[in-house]
Amino acid sequence: MSLFEIKIRKLEYFEKWLILGGLIGIAAGIGAIIFYYAIIYAQSLFLGNIVGMSVPTASGEGNNAFVAGNYLLVPISIILGGLLSGFLVYKFAPEAEGHGTNSIINSFHNKNGNIRKRVPIVKTIASAITIGSGGSAGREGPTAQIAAGISSFMADVFRLTKKEKRIAVIVGAGAGIGTIFKAPIGGALLAVEVPYKRDLETAALFPAIVASAVGYTIFGAIVGFQPIFGYYLGVFSPMSLPLYAVLGVATGIFAIIYVKFFYGVHRRFKALKISNYYKPAIGAVMVGIVAMLFPEIMGVGYGWVQLMVNGTLGSFPTYGLPILLVLLIMPFAKIAATSFSVATGGSGGVFAPGIFVGASVGLLFGMIFHMAFPAIAPEVAPFVIVGMLALMGGAGKVPLSVLLMVTEMTGSLQLLPAAMIAVSLSYLISGQNTLYSSQVTSKEDSPAHMHEYHKPILGSVKLKNLQLNDFAVDAEVTVADAIKRMKELDITSIPVIDKRRRTKGGKLGALGMVALANIHHAPSERVRKFVKWDIRRVRLDSTGRIAIGVMSEAGTTWVAVEEGNKYVGCITLRQIVKEYNRRLKDLALEE
Length: 591
Prior knowledge:
single chain; mainly alpha; Clc chloride channel; CBS-domain; 3 domains; three-stranded mixed beta sheet
């Protein structure tokens, strides 16, 4: 251990994190610059050379106009990008698939902040290809994972404690997002807010402020400090607050749709019995079809959001349909395109697409409000801006962060009252639905704070973090086959599914050795008549303590797990005991 490492470790909290936060900020700034220009290069390589297309950019990033190119070649570009991205991710770093932020949250809660060193490199290249080829994805999630990965490596270099390493990782994530969004204050608060649905990681606030400020300064020095969407100088009317309340409810509903559709696609593609290498390309086929009709769904989409803010809708294809109908379809098109780009195994963020969806909803309602109440809704721009942030406040469970981002991304404080109303309602309406499935409700639910809250270890073991098994047999198998299967698995009972009477989730029961003890004279008998049906199940978010209680009550060494009232597999007592011992060992090491 070097003298510098020793000195870092011995410093007090503020001194230590002033230095570490600054270093993380440097990493975030440089990483964001590299990724930013990698996307530009990839867009030129794919969309420019193959399609002849140039996507619009926001006013804070050049305000370039849209050049259509050959729409028929769009699917070729997107599919090629999906193939390359899928190969890179699944060949070198499978954890780099998806939107990045969720992986960071999972690392914070369950992996002590550990992120493999290759992840930032793979994430940079794969995400740039996904976005640059026309896939619908954002750049904030990849930037967060890039900065978080470097922060994890830095924590190893300085031999920080597990707790400090976890903080470093989410500080890096917040700095990365604050940097690429040119919203350092919002990014700093995001680091504190994003691990939880209803809590804050306050220990990360000071270093996150330092890191975001440094990263933003470095990034802005190269690409400019102008807010992404320019400066909004309109006049806000208090009389319009009820309209923003309506918008908040609408964005909350769309937040639920976004989350449900995204993870619905994710589950279906996970279940496909084909190589992971090809799944992003299959998703890209779907994206390509949508993009030929709605080219605005491609890429990050900030340029299109800028056109919405400006009220310049001439570049949006309408195909002779009323503009309000087109605006109603557009959020669904973006949700579908993002899900098929990212949830299929591609690499890219979900925050920026959420901004596009919210902006579309805001524009739709803004135009309706303007037609109905022109005196209190004289322009649509405020509704576009508030809509895009309200949706992500609900879908991402980060309401405080987006309230600050509204001022930083538009250079205006005037919309804060409207944003506060809309974001609060969106957050409330969307409930527990979140794009970041690794989020937990509060610190008390996080394994990272298990010792701090003196929470029993079994109560902190979540079944969703264990590997599901599916060793259920069909109700039509013979007694002899069922006994043989139980002996192979070394269990005294086994789950049974009746496929002939498949209700929602399937009819599920249990068959025990005891029930079969007196029928060895009929080994060819079907097990259906000996099964105890409608056994008690647990949910994926249930704890090990609940699962063991159910096992004890049923007299089994396994428990059936359901998700949305559908049977998805089993967890064994052996798995829970193994996880219990692992966590007990980790606690001993931390103490």
